[in-house]
Each structure stands twice: as C-alpha cells, then as structure tokens.
Amino acid sequence: MSQVSPIDSVEHDSDVVFDNIGMTFGTASGVTHAVANVSGAIPEGKFVSVIGPSGCGKSTLLDMVGGLLKPTQGSVSINGESVTGPRRDTAMVFQEDSTLHWRTVLDNVAFGLEVKGLPKAERHERARRMIELVGLTGFEDHRPGQLSGGMKQRVAIARALAMEPRVLLMDEPFGALDQQTRQFIGRELLRIWEKTRNRVLFITHDIQEAVYLSDEVWVMSARPSVVKEVVTIDLPRPRPEGTHALPRFRELEDHLWALVKVEAEKTLGPGARLA
Amino acid sequence: MTVQEKTSSVQSQQRTPLVSRAALVRWVIILALVAVLEFTTRTGMISQSLMVPPSEILTRLASIVPTEQFGQDAARTLTTILVAFSIGLVLGIPLGVFLWRVPAAGRILEPFIVTGYAMPTLLFYPVLLALMGLNAGPIIVIAASMSLIPIALTTMVALNAIKPILHKLANSVSASPRQYYLKVLFPAATPLIFPGVKLGFIYAVIGTVAMEFILASQGVGFRAGFYYRELNTADMWAYIAVVIVLSVLVNSVLTWLEKRIRRDML
Fold first, then answer.
1. Does the interface ipTM go beyond 0.90?
2. Is B162 in the A-facing interface, judged by CB distances under 8 Å?
C-alpha cells in the first residue's frame, strides 16, 4: 500500500491546506468533538475523497472549507488566505436536491454567476457550456420538476463548475440516488473532471466510489475524528469501465474497508462486529 | 429520464380532455339549476316573495346596470374591497415574515392570530361606526383585518416550509441577504403563500359585502340589504347576482394566477 502521512505532503501556497483544524459543538448533552487535529492539503488538480464512519465529521470538514462553519481550532487556507466565510473560489454540491424549482435549468446553472453579478449574456453563455459538459443539452428550458434525481444533481454540478472554483466541494452528491444512477453519474463526473481538473474534495461513504474517482482517499476515524490514513489511489487515468475489476482496485478497496471497519465498529459501540 | 418524460407527457395529454369534460359537466349543472329555479318559481313551487325567476333577475339587471347609481355602488364596493385587500397584503406579508424570523414572537402571537381567525370580527362594526362614522372606513377596517390573518399565517407557514438546503446554497455562493430574500426566499415561498393571499381576497370580499349589507350608505351589499328590507325580492336578487358574478370573476382570475405560479413549480 502506498501510504503517506498527511503532514508529510508538500504544501504549496496555492493549495487548499488544513492546518490542525478541529471543531467542537456545544450540545444539550455536553461538548461534542466533531473533528480534532486534521491536517493535510489538497494539491492542484487532485481529486480527494474523504471516507469514514457516519457521524465522523466528514461534512463538517467540507463545510469548514466552504466557509459555512468556522473551525474552533486551527485554520483552513486556500491560496495562502485563511478561510473566514464563504468564498467565491469554492463551490459546493450537496446531497440533497438544491435546484431552484422556479428557475429553468439554464438559470439554475447560472445562479451562482448571477449572484456574483455577471451580465446576463455572459452568464448564460457560460451556463450553456456547463450544461453541455454535464450532458444536459436540450434541457436548458426545462424546470427541475421535469428532471430525474440524477439530472438534478447534474444541474447542481454544472452550477458549481460554472463558478470556475479553485476547489469543488461535494458532500455525498450521489448519496440520494439509486445504485445504477449513482454508478452512471460517477462515470460522468470523472469524464467531466478529466476536462476541468479542479481540485475536488469529495465526501462519500461509498468505498468503491471513492477508489474509482480519487487520487487520494482520506480515511477518517470515529469521533473525535482525525485523518487516520491517506491512501493514494495509484490506478491509471483515464479509468475506463473495467476499472472496478482490476486486481489493484480490489486491493485498494479491501484495504480501505479494513480501515473503515475498525472505525465503524468503534462508532457502533462495544461488541459490534461487522462481517 | 426518457421514461419519466414519457409518463409526464402522457399525463398531460390525458389531463386536458378530462378538465374540459369536467368544465362541460359543470356548465350542464349550472344550466340545470337555473332551469329548475326558473320552473319552480314560475309554477309557484317556490314563492315569488322568496325567489324570482332567473329570467326576471336578468331583466331587472338589464335596467339596473346602466344606471348611475349602480355605477357608484359597484365602484364603492370594488374600491372598498381593493383597499381592504391591499392593507391585508401590505400588513399581512411583513407580519408573516416577522413571525417566521422571530419564532418566539410567533409562539407568543400565534394564539391571538388564530383567535382573530375564528372570531366574528363583524361584532366590532357598531363600535367602529360610532368611532369613524357611516363611511367606507369601518368597513375597510373590518375587511382588512379579516383579509390580513390568512395572509400572515400562510406567509409564516410557507417560509417555515422552505428547505434549509436553499439557505445553505445561497450561503455557499456568497449571496447577500437581499439576494437571498429576492432570488431564493420569496420565489420559493410564493406558490405556498398564494393560497393564503387568495383566501385573504375572498375574506375582503365577504367582509365588505356583509358590512355593507348590515349598514352603509352605498355599495352593492348595501343595495341588496336595502331591497331585502323593502321586501323588493326581484331587485334584491339582482344585486345578489351581481355579488355572485363578482366573486366568480375574482376567483377565476385568482385561480388562473395561481395556476400560472404553480406551473413554475411543477
């Protein structure tokens, strides 16, 4: 296995860097340490997935990069600047359907650019290119109510990509889709990403998905979460359809499963045993 | 996706003839009712002191509608309704937004508002008459307060029903509070607020016509009440018919508007 400690990775100024970040929530039952001491970096042009047991603070990590949550310890910096709030160079895709039902596909994709203040002609032009990229050409004037779940997520991805973000933050974007759509749209995402090569921080609980898409998979531990291991996915790109069947793919998948299993058992409590 | 598209287009293909068939049946029912009324009143099965034949209502209307007095009555009633409804909107929507933004205020005030909904506000009409005199003022106050309540309540409920993800989305693209309200919150809430607005309008109509009926110096409702007290059944029914036509017209305009808004939701 090729493993590197997250702290060893070379940190560039242009990177997305986590500097020993932590997050504690005050709750009714006391203080919860959601994330503790996470360090690492997302290098230029890399696709990084984060996996871990449910409730390990994966989404919290993502929200901190997106500026929606402020870490209670340490800091996230992008391009050398510390993240203090939502930034124009990050864009998010959520698990839930976040399309605006009263807008057409075109105006949904252009939404972020509209908020940014781009003139109509320019934002529509850019939105059209993104619609083509995600394979929704012909649906520009449809409304989300006329689209399937998978298509709505593609609208959300196009909306995020239209912002030309330095980092694309994806919070289990395919989590609400059925298995077939999920695999299909996963391949689509990879095809799109091969063209754009944004940095991606991708949260998932699907190990196969993580291996298939990523350059690096960060395995998070149970609470209080730290990055337990960074696994480099050394599968060649582009990754055609048969990739899942490669022996190396299986190896990586098994290794990740072994790591996640230990953490999941901790989360589920004493005596829990996963097959 | 193609499967979904097919099913939705099949549904819309089936829906159109069904709707027009329903409309046809509705017209048949209306015409049948009119025919039954005509027959029962003409033959004396219904006393003409209670109800006059629809054909006679029509002839009465033909002579009433062109008069200057009718024009003044209709204008008075319509402006009263519109003023009351506008007040209901202008106060009701901000009140709903406030109840949503400040949940504590919502919890404290909601019982009052719901009581206001249930209470026959018309009981305050005599007091208002004594305070403001016999003019449109007291009627506007009553009709506006009736109209305001459903508008405020549905606004609050609609805003509460908006998915938190939309707030997160607006936040993630650094939308300003103004952009959040105008580009996300209000468009998202409009289809949900609309039924309350429609109800608010209907309440404004009911409030206005009912108060005019009780006591006023002018207006369609006043005229119907006036002829009722004079035992002039034919003219009373003519004015009732005016109110019915008015309500149907207003309601169809609102339903058409609502459909247009809903179409965007799909």
1. no
2. no
